[in-house]
Amino acid sequence: MKKQQKNTSDNKIIYLNHDEITDPIKVLHEFFSHAWLPYHLKMLKRWRNDVAFESEEPKKCSPAFLVYHYELTIKLIEAAWLLKGRKPGRLDFDNKQESEFIKCYIKAEKKKLRNYPKNLSIREIVKPSSVLKIMFRIYQLDGYKKILHTWLHDALNTSFMEERLSKFEVITVYEQLVKLFEATWLIRERVKGGD
């Protein structure tokens, strides 16, 4: 795996308009207005499978829908890039508060909110913006764009494209996107009233 360059000039916001750059939370609302969290996760898994696994069956994603989902995902990643230094959706608990109290709060929130995250740790649920920080330590914005561009082309190709991306890259990006989808969904749900 190549080490990613630190050149931040490559990490340009391309897909977001001025209003979305000014208020990246709008992108989260837009992303989840197109589909619920479970559907986005299902689509992501199909996309990953079309890229990573050779199969005799036709690919599961239609080309038009794949391009549409790709663009939505890139917009979400760009919004996450802008939000990574902020703390939206953070629960107001200090480090000294009892973990049992935090677990009770999360249990109550889980009952109240639909499609609660299943892949986030308690710490990530309390501070969903921490997912964004960690995500961009693995790859910068430009790195995710390049990898997802390769995913898009591989998934659109009628034949299996082996080893354009390593299994590590596919798994790592997939796991980070699952967490990104869940964390941004949680942020969106928590800031709904505070827009």
Verbal overview:
The chain is an all-alpha fold and 195 residues long. It has one domain (16-194). The chain is built from nine helices and no strands. The protein has helices spanning 18-22, 25-34, 37-52, 63-83, 99-112, 122-126, 129-138, 141-156, 167-191. The longest helix is centred in the C-terminal third of the chain and has 25 residues, at 167-191. The radius of gyration is 17 Å and the shape is globular. The termini are far apart.
Keywords, please?
single chain, 195 residues, mainly alpha, globular
How would you sum up this structure in a few lines?
With about 200 residues, the protein is mainly alpha-helical. About 65% of the residues lie in helices and about 0% in strands.
Order of helices and strands: HHHHHHHHH
Q: Helix proportion of residues, in percent?
A: 55-70%
When the domains are counted, the total is 1
User: Termini separation (Å)?
Assistant: 41 Å
Q: What is the rounded Rg?
A: 17 Å
DSSP E strands, number = 0
Mean pLDDT: 84
Oligomer: single chain
Form type: globular
Largest sheet: none
Number of helices: 9
Find the structural class using helix and strand composition: mainly alpha
Question: Uncertain segments of ≥5 residues (pLDDT<50)?
Answer: 1-8
Percent strand: under 5%
